[in-house]
């Protein structure tokens, strides 16, 4: 995958302000200001070519590390803090387990951490974000963005295990409607192919010879 041309907002429901910001994007300026990681914030990160390493940091915090951009997301179960803290590229992610269909002995969702509703799926709502990019070519999202994700795990007949991530990005500043995305990840037997790299952005296609 290569960086789209400057101003290319294809399939992203940007409004006039979003289109203007995308057309004003300047990769050289981002590099000079050490802002290349703006394309690796939570709303844009999930769509980048990458591998994820998912572990429990503690009983109430699920940790997702990505090799793209060397980012770390923390998914918090239980009550959110009263003070949101400093904005960041990954924001604050509140997580809860849910069942797509109620089953005997289970309700429709829950906020407990490790071990609660084994085999269920995850709903994650991320707020308190720093402004960033939905794509590497500067298509913007603002700090008012709310990212809602559903992580659904499923098994294939051949034994492969997959996670499908459905994302809904809402931004009153740069989008004229919610932006829906779907991304799938296949579980690998080990971490041999997990190779962390920094926030690297190639020049747009129009500048490549």
Describe the protein in words:
- The chain is mostly beta strands.
- The protein has one domain.
- Helices cover 9% and strands 32% of the residues.
- The strands form two sheets. Strands 1, 2, 3, 4, 5, 6, 9, 10 and 11 form a nine-stranded mixed β-sheet that branches.
- The protein is globular and about 45 Å long.
- The two termini are 16 Å apart.
- The relative contact order is 0.22.
Question: Short description, anyone?
Answer:
The protein has 209 residues and is mostly beta strands. The protein has three helices and eleven strands. It has one domain (16-46, 55-188, 195-204).
Estimate the mean pLDDT confidence: 89
Gap from first CA to last CA: 16 Å
Query: Shape from CA axes?
Result: globular
For the secondary structure, the number of strands is 11
SSE ordering = HHHEEEEEEEEEEE
Amount of beta strand: 25-35%
What is the number of domains? 1
Cα-atom Rg, whole angstroms? 18 Å
Specify the biggest β-sheet. Answer: 9 strands, mixed
Low-confidence stretches: 102-108
Structural class: mainly beta
Tally of contiguous helical segments: 3
The helix content, as a percent range, equals under 10%
Subunit organisation of the chains: single chain
């Amino acid at each position: 995958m290569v960086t789209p041309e400057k101003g290319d907002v294809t399939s992203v429901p940007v409004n006039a302000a979003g289109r203007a910001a995308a057309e004003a994007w300047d990769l050289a300026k981002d590099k000079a200001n050490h802002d290349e990681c703006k394309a690796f914030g939570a709303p844009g990160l999930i769509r980048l070519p990458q591998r994820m390493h998912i572990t429990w940091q503690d009983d109430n915090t699920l940790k997702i590390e990505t090799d793209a951009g060397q980012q770390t997301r923390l998914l918090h179960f239980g009550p959110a803090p009263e003070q949101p803290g400093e904005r960041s590229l990954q924001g604050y992610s509140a997580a809860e387990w849910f069942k797509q269909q109620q089953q005997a002995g289970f309700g429709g969702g829950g906020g407990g951490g490790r071990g609660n509703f084994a085999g269920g799926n995850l709903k994650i709502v991320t707020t308190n974000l720093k402004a960033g990019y939905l794509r590497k070519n500067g298509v913007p999202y603002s700090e008012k963005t709310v990212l809602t994700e559903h992580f659904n795990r499923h098994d294939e007949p051949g034994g492969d295990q997959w996670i499908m991530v459905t994302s809904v990005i809402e931004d009153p500043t740069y989008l004229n409607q919610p932006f829906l995305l779907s991304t799938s990840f296949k579980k690998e037997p080990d971490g041999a192919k997990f190779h962390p790299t920094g926030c690297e952005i190639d020049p747009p296609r129009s500048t490549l010879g």
